[in-house]
């Protein structure tokens, strides 16, 4: 499930660190606020892409029937 889009630019460093820890991201006490924001944005994008991939049916793209010749390959 993709997390709700949030404005992480207005969050404090402690709030960002807490969000990172909740999501299993490494958020040490010396990690900068910008790095925490980047990690959360990357995590959000990865989850969004994961959801898109799960929705996409790979069998849908392999619609070639056994008796059909693949297009673009000449017969010998």
Account of the protein in words:
This protein is mostly helical. It has a domain of 43 residues. It contains 3 helices and no strands. Helix 1 runs parallel beside helix 2. The radius of gyration is 21 Å and the shape is elongated. 8% of the residues are buried. The mean pLDDT is 78.
Strand content: under 5%
Q: What is the alpha-carbon Rg in Å? A: 21 Å
What is the count of β-strands?
0
What is the number of helices?
3
Q: What is the N-to-C order of secondary-structure elements (H for helix, E for strand)? A: HHH
Low-confidence stretches: none
What helical percentage do the residues reach? 40-55%
The end-to-end distance, rounded to whole angstroms, is 49 Å
Content-based structural category: mainly alpha
What is the residue-mean pLDDT, rounded to a whole number?
78
The biggest beta sheet is recorded as:
none
Assign an overall shape.
elongated
Keywords:
76 residues; 3 helices; mainly alpha
Describe what is shown at a glance:
It is built from 3 helices and no strands. The chain is mainly alpha-helical. The chain is elongated and about 55 Å long.
Topology diagram in text:
Layout: H1 13-22, H2 33-55, H3 58-61
Helix pairs in contact: 1-2
Biased composition (Basic and acidic residues): 60-76
Region (Disordered): 53-76
